[in-house]
Amino acid sequence: QYFFSLSVLFCCQYAVSDLLTDLGSNVTINCDLDEKEVYWILLKTPNPPTVILRSFSTSPFYHNIIFRKKYSVQFKHRLVINNVTADELGVYYCMNTKTPPKLSNSTRLHFTESTLKQTECHNHTVVELIDQTQWQIIIIISGLMNGFQFILLI
């Protein structure tokens, strides 16, 4: 299991891409796994990963009813985020439902600089971007995968 975690660390080190968006836009994130079913997961440090939904070939299963209004799935497990707000900023990835877990490349969603300035001016607040290093993401993903393995062993 230790070797597996280390291999995840090394293989996923450069698997984070940035996606810039504007406040209120709709965003589509691709899942690069060729699977029949996947989990879509959101990572917002310091919080633990959040499972958004499980995508089946027919329709998604939402792990929280609140996510139905915000997230949907298109062909080939593409995650659609409707009307993006600061709450949706973070790192998204899909994961297969089998053992051993297989993760997609991650997509870090954040606002364009002009959107941040507009938000600061209109709301008189400062939107703090989630400054996640690749190591934090890798360690959390590794912990999540170890947790899944532990649950499966039990």
TrEMBL record:
Q: Which SMART domains match?
A: IG (SM00409)
Q: Which Gene3D superfamilies match?
A: Immunoglobulins
Looking at the UniProt entry, the stretches that span the membrane are none
One Pfam family named in its UniProt record: V-set
Residues of the Immunoglobulin domain: 16-112
Q: Determine if Transcription regulation is one of this entry's keywords.
A: no
Q: Where is the signal peptide?
A: 1-17
The UniProt keywords, alphabetically, are:
Signal
Query: What protein name does the entry list?
Result: Immunoglobulin domain-containing protein
